[in-house]
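hey m, so remember when u said the tokens were messed up on ur end? i reran from scratch. heres the input so u can diff it against urs
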Amino acid sequence: MSMTAPVLELDVGNSTIKWRLLDGGVRVSGGRLESIAELLLSLPVSVQLARIASVADVAREAAIIEQLRAHGIAALVAKSQRECAGVRNVYQDESRMGVDRWLAMVAAYQQFSRASLVIDIGSALTIDFVDADGCHLGGYIIPGVPLLSKALGLHTGRVRFAEAQSFGLAPGVSTEECVHHGKWLAIIGAVREALTWAQEYWTEAYDVFICGGDAMTVMAAFGAQAEGWHYREELVMDGLSYALSARED
């Protein structure tokens, strides 16, 4: 596949699909959607290759691949690896790591080749640590704001609350505030603990990368402390070319 040929990249999550179109290696368009059907009918250029990162269930992933093939687009699906682009996976069985986490770490490390704290906050909050030598030290997987809401709604008999609530961390004065502020307190607290661990563990400079649908809210909560963080909306897709380069030759 020519490096200049148009490529469609997909980050298939649990609820939505992020996409972008590269032409000559340059991003020309992108967005977020629930289905790729309309996108495939409106692509501005002819595309023959799609790179995919997917944490969706097998059936949904297979359906997307079939849709692509029906439009003459070959699909390459990234998988977590033992090593890629200088990053080494700490898992004994690398296949058990979510590919979104893996690609985000690979892309983050490629930026500066320094120790990196990689935060992805969407349906789940994932936090991963990569040292200056590219070794993944481990991480955390925590329910994100939507999953925390769902868990309380499903598994409590009398905790009832409306979904639409603004961000807040102050102690709640109603059930709704207690729930919504409590969710954010859990998320912000987890990120703060991860930052503390990084500061205590790494004596050298390190970088913080953050992505995901709730990334901007988290950054706003940290105020001036987040000014040096690197917000990368498409960090997972940034890792696709590194993970799939050998299979495109």
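this time it looks ok to me. The mean pLDDT is 91. if urs says something different then somethings off w ur setup not the seq
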